[in-house]
Amino acid sequence: MLVFLFAATAGFVALGVWQVERLGWKRDLIARVDARVHAAPVAVPASTQWAGVDVASDEYRRVTLRGRLLHSQEVPVYASTERGPGYWIMTPMATADGTVWVNRGYVDNAHRARDSRARVSEADEVEVTGLLRLPERAGLFLRDNVPAEDRWYVRAPDEMAAAREVPQPVAPFFIDAQPAPGDANWPVPGLTVVQFRDNHLSYAITWFGMAMLTLLGIVLVVRSEFRGRGRA
User: Fold this and answer.
1) What is the DSSP letter of 76?
2) For residue 87, what are the CA distances in angstroms to 28, 55, 175, 208?
3) In a shared domain, residues 69 and 156
4) Based on the domain organization, do 151 and 222 belong to the same domain?
5) Cα(207)–Cα(38) distance, rounded to whole angstroms?
6) Less Cβ around it within 10 Å: N or C end of the chain?
């Protein structure tokens, strides 16, 4: 019983410490994202800077880019949003520096087909303002893409570029487009999640509270053992 209680105490303390670390990470993320999404847009990083783009310095940074949207090469990626299930319309933008994938926004199943949506000509240059995002990868909650069947679950620029005909080089990030004057009804931009739940403090208190209970259990077991030996 003591071995079990000591192991449980150590486990609960470790979980509590982990939640405290997560609390610091989450609050830093919230502050960083909040500052970036409301900042004035800057030019998208040049291709010479792509190798240095990372989460800490660049993700959720508000940027602008200019080029041609290659609608014929778009990729619909499964999405779950506040508007319900549907698709992100990922469209490659051919710029003077290479290709940057742009998440033009959400569509429902009825507007998945390109012909069901208004769009500019591929020959026209347009300007897009949005949030710089790093690639998604399959994991616990996201499935692997199946390019051979044109089924897409994560927004991965390298995988999408390999399955479509786009100019090289290809940026290792994508842009979540924000609403602009004159936008058509579909796709719906501006649904990037920029508010994050912060429950780590309550979780930490819970785990440390469980550790205190198991410590109390250790005390009770030890007292009971000594009392039993005393009576013997």
Assistant:
1) E
2) 30, 24, 16, 41
3) yes
4) no
5) 36
6) C
User: 105 near 189, Cβ under 8 Å?
Assistant: yes
Q: What pLDDT sits at residue 230?
A: 65
Q: What is the distance between the alpha carbons of residues 11 and 17, in angstroms, rounded to a whole number?
A: 10
Kindly state the tokens that stand for 176. Answer: 């979540």
Domain that residue 203 falls in: 2-24+198-231
Instruction: Give φ, ψ of 208 to 5 degrees.
Output: -65, -35
At residue 60, the 3 state secondary structure works out as coil
pLDDT for 86-102, tens place per residue? 999 999 999 999 999 99
Look up residue 181 and give its DSSP letter. Answer: T
Q: Which two tokens stand for residue 34?
A: 């909040």
Question: For residue range 105-157, what is the model confidence (pLDDT) as tens digits?
Answer: 999 999 998 888 877 888 899 999 999 999 998 877 788 999 999 999 999 99
Q: How many residues does the chain have?
A: 232
Say which residues have a Cβ less than 8 Å from residue 213's Cβ, sequence separation at least 6.
none
